[in-house]
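Hi U.,

Before I forget, here's the chain from the pilot set. I'm dumping it here mostly so it's searchable later in email.
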Amino acid sequence: MSVPSSVLVPYAAHLRVYEPLVAFPEPERGHWARYARRADLPGAQDELRRALADLVPVPPVPVPVHESADAFVTTVDGTVLVCPWRTRLRAWLAMGELTGGTLPAPVLDAMLPPVVRAQAAADHERWLERNPDARPWIRGAVWRVPLSWFAVFSDEEREYAPGDRAAGEAPVLRYRTPMAQARRRLARALKALRGAIAEGPMTESLVGVGRWLEEFHPRALVELDYGGLVHAVGAEALAADRSAADVAAGIAALRDGDGAGAEEAYGRLAERWRAVRDLQFAN
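Structure:
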């Protein structure tokens, strides 16, 4: 059960990995086993609310002082699966993306003063010395869903609930697939791309996702959640969104040497996601 919150999720999608309890060493395994039995498990909006609360003070606290002990929990065929939030680690990674040129320097300095960023970077470096193999269970993307993420799923795994916007009930669009299936699809997609086109951003993105997934338990579950992006897409467009099917069609066309078919599938994807990205710069 998720605790409701009045804060809306921002325009971000998430790729999550849920692992079985056996994937965690003790004493962490015992912690998650007890945690999963709670009746008041927090949801995505609660994670967001806590993160936003840290940005209110002056100066802001972009990275939590302590790592989160919370997680997303689901059960599949009687097996409890856990996706730790690892909010502190993800905050450091997100800061790295911001300082990499995502925002203009004056905007970045206004949001996160240089002294705050320098302190966070120093803390991250010291933390990495003690945790060199750390990796997040959750990846995020703002104002888009990377096309490589869709290559992990099939259209049959699409779960859509329209919600009731008038009543404040947000729609939900997500995909879930077993880890073994996700790895097979990525391998087939990479083979098709490398056999048809030169190495490029899409290939690099697929390799990056594949390497990340290899770090998790083979009986894990992979989830793509549109999250707050549902608020940036009209109801009709969201209901008609079959991006995983379009990616699969494009990859199949490349495999068959059908350049026109691949171009047609990519055109549908480009038009759909260009409309969403354009909203980022709208007044």
